Amino acid sequence: MNNLDLLTAITVFVLSVLVGVEVISKVPATLHTPLMSGSNSVHGIVVIGAMLIAAESHTWLGYVLAFAAMVFGAMNVVGGYVVTDRMLEMFKARPATGKSTSDAREKAEV
């Protein structure tokens, strides 16, 4: 890799970070959880890419970077599914406590 290729790769990386930060900062809080659950596929692709890098790497730096990418990608995948599960739990019906709402209103009036 010559200096021009390295400079191009660094430029693309920096621009993608800046665009990513700008896009994510504009997401309202009510959309954060659905977007988080939808991003699991993106993080799965990161894990697969890290595995491909590890397979092609022949230096210790490549192995370390691939391992770090796999760990962080896997953490994001698992975290996304945990958040999605918690989000879906909010929409389940709660079990009845045995008291009707009219009993609760009568107690409140007394």
If you had to describe this structure to a student in words, what would you say it looks like?
There is one protein chain. With 110 residues, the chain is mainly α. The protein has a domain of 60 residues. 81% of the residues lie in helices and 0% in strands. The chain is built from five helices and no strands. Helix 2 packs across helix 4 and helix 3 packs antiparallel against helix 4. The longest helix has 30 residues. The protein starts with a helix and ends with a helix.
- The tally of helices reads 5
Low-pLDDT residue intervals, each spanning 5 or more residues: none
| Share of residues in helices | over 70%
Class by helix and strand content? mainly alpha
Shape: elongated
Q: Measure the end-to-end span.
A: 81 Å
What is the rounded Rg?
23 Å
The description of the largest β-sheet is: none
Please report the total strand number as a whole number. Answer: 0
| Topology pattern, helix = H, strand = E | HHHHH
The overall average pLDDT, rounded, is: 78
Give the DSSP E fraction (strand runs of 2 or more residues): under 5%
In terms of topology, how is this protein built?
Blueprint: H1 3-25, H2 29-38, H3 40-56, H4 60-89, H5 101-109
Characteristic key phrases:
EC 7.1.1.1; 0% strand; translocase; 110 residues; NADP; mainly alpha
Short description:
This protein has 5 helices and no strands. The chain has helices at residues 3-25, 29-38, 40-56, 60-89, 101-109.
